[in-house]
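Hello again, I could really use a second opinion on something today. I've been staring at a protein lately and its backbone has me curious. Can you walk me through what the tokens say about the fold? Take your time with it, there's no hurry, and the full record follows here:
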Amino acid sequence: MNKKVWHPLLDFLELDAGEESGVSEWIDSGETDLLTMDVVVQLQGAFLAISKYRMRNLAMLNQKPRISDSSFQHNNLYHTWLNIHKMYHCSKEELSDALKLNGFFEDIFTLPLTKQRKEEFVETYERFLQAVFELETSQSQRESVEKKEPEESIRLKQEVEKETVASLETTVLVEESSSLQSPKTFIEQLTVLQTSSIESVVHADVFTNFQHYMHVERPIQKQFIAALETAKRSSVANLVMLCGSVGDGKSHLISYVQEAFPQLLNNETCFIHNDSTESYNYSEDELETLERVLAPFEEGALVPKTTVIAINLGVLHNFYMKHEHTGEFEKVLRVIEKSEVFTTQQDYYYEEHDHATLLNFAGVQPYELSVEGIHSSFFNDIVERVSRPSNENPFYRLWEKEWNAGERTAAHINYHLLKDEEMRHALVKVLVEAMVKKKLFLSTRALYNLLYDVLVPLDNKHAVQPEQLLPYLLFERPDRSDLLHALHELDPIKRRDERFDERLSEYMLTSEPIAMIKQYLTDDESYLKLWESEDYMDESYLKLFLRHYYLLNHGHLNERYHQFLKYLYHYYIGEGGVIGEFFDYLDQVVESWIGSPIDGYLYIQPISKNEYSVAVPFKGEQDIGDQYGQFHNKETLNRFMPELTVGYNVEGTPVLISLDYTLFELIIHVAEGLRPGQQDYNEAIQFMEFYKDLIRNSDQTNDLIIVHRETNHIMRIKKPRFARGGKTYEVETVK
């Protein structure tokens, strides 16, 4: 740590009354390892304040309006820094560090603060501080920038500019020029995959050669182009809205179509608003901006003839709620209502009368489900583009040059593994498995970053070790991202499987590990060389072998997962026979979850130390969610949630539960004989509530079973249909 670089940050700490600054003490220690979560939280507040200060200073130097202070919120800093770069031309390196820091702060409560993350965080933050403060002349000038009004700021700018602006412009030009140079090495080329890389950030008006090469066509692209062609032929004002969520590809699609089809999408005939969470006038909030953007279409203006908007569904919903009863924007609201965008899974809607098209990205999965299982052509295409042996591929060109020159770092070997089609498909299958099991969303940018993380180990300079290779890294880097954390939880090393045990025993007994690697993994010479080591019995080698074996045999070693996919597919296409099989499991689990004293009765609560237990009659009829049969006769599905909604109709009341993979797996285990314990009850809170609802809606007044715990004596208390002699209930001994 360079203490001198960090000390200016102390002026930007925002502490509550009575709160002590741990940052000052940490800086004085000069020890990265002493970084604590409390210090990180205070540094997050400082980062927000420094970002605002940086914007004001750059605005003054460039004589441009300031971005509104309201844009500087923790949940919006990502977009704000993109705007700082766009408006004031800060260097791409500074933008990259700012985005990386913002991503770190977003994950501070979900990912562990490991030594590695501390080191990366401190290094990035220090570099960011150098970029912000290295051109400033004094603390007094910094305070002046904060306090002066715009008119005074211009005068101050003239004083400071003599010493700083020439240096600033030179620095920016050098940095921009440097960042646009083609990478000289394979590792440098791989860094463009990182989330912090400027190449991974998509703007509507910029589409780089790298992004063009990496572009993968999706079905919604054809619909977007068709909508633009319709708008071009029209003689009236048109509206095209791309709706969805963050990271789903709206910005990328607009950028690509602008570059590839300029005759359809250009700034002369179209007004393009790429993100309605960003404001063109920084004194506006997002809804005010959206109102201004939509006004020409609403009023029927012919210049611009076509309005194209990429918008998050949350913003669109807020707009709808604001104007639902104002009488304004009637055309736009009519389109929203008719499209049913907030309630249906429809991906395309065209309103001929109002000349509006709405494309819905929401709910579209990056994978496809069919009777054969699950597959992601989109992810496969991306991974294939990274590893494709072609001169058009910037990764392959540099890799091949260095490989032929004898370069054999772990990253080079990992890329060599990735070029194998079987490994590529295996990698994608495991990624999709993690997404389904853990209900994660993986954006294109996050996939790029993951590829970098599994290709490039932290130490890529020394002799290759098992811990540096792709199958090992895939399950051993939980602190790098949510998806890698999920993969770590699904690590095959944690599994108990008969075939796994057989391979492990075989490996432990072999005296010829290379023969086993050839038989079960690969005969690639660069990979085999690793197994010539006398240390092949070390734990790291065993882990690498088992993880690699799992990747190549994923389908055979994941029967429960594929069973879930089978039921999921037949649920959505409405195949009753297959779903009936699942209800057999569910019936068993409902009966055995807490227990049943006799057929047709369920205990109302777990058997405890109480002397008696009570059971009620259960007469639920099997019931199912509205999504059942939603895609009848459709062979391939890509717009669905990976869960089954099933349950029972109890006394006229539907009681349903949505089962994700975790609950599904528990149900199958219990149905196959596993007795649920306290941990199962704690983890399956949703199923416990479902069970309680079944009991709550069952008849508890006319018929009860009471069981004496010690003697197992069972009595039935029943209300007779026709009471006689003043008898309200009848009691009989069942056992």
Remarks:
- The chain has four domains: 3-180, 215-362, 367-557, 582-733.
